[in-house]
Amino acid sequence: MNGIAQVAALLSGIVYVAVSPLEMFFYDRPAVRRWLHVDTTDVADVRMWAFVVGVRNLLGGAGALIGLLILHSGNEPAGHAVTLSACWYMLLAGLAMGLADLLGFWRPRGGSVLGTIGSSVLPLVAIVAASV
After folding, report:
1. Of 36, 68, 95, 119, whose CA is between 20 and 30 Å from 88?
2. Which domain holds residue 7?
């Protein structure tokens, strides 16, 4: 796995891990919801979903970071597989967010554009760079 792929995977993992506590524990704060571009009428109704999304983001990000640790600990094939699996997960999850917006599930509609781009570009760079 080349350097570009590793750096992109590392940054992806850091971003996903860093954002997850906001979704898991601080979703009830209006500033966090604004930063996440989410307009929730009744926070209590979506609290569980926000927590689950945060956990899934934490797992995806941690997977990329653990994959890189495995890669650099000497088990290159396993590290490569774990890192790329996590990157594929993060890419597909980001694209699913965009699809949910297109289907009208995001409020306000179009609000997921920055999040979709932000959560998809780095994993995509890692996947493409690793395949070269």
Report:
1. 36
2. 3-131
Phi, psi (degrees; rounded to nearest 5) at 33 = -65, -35
Write the DSSP string, 30-90.
HHHHHHTT---S-HHHHHHHHHHHHHHHHHHHHHHHHHHHHHHTT-HHHHHHHHHHHHHHH
Return d(Cα 67, Cα 101) in angstroms, integer: 30
Residue 48 φ then ψ, to 5°: -65, -40
- Per the structure, how many domains does the chain have? 1
Tens-digit pLDDT profile for residues 45-69? 788 888 999 999 999 999 999 999 9
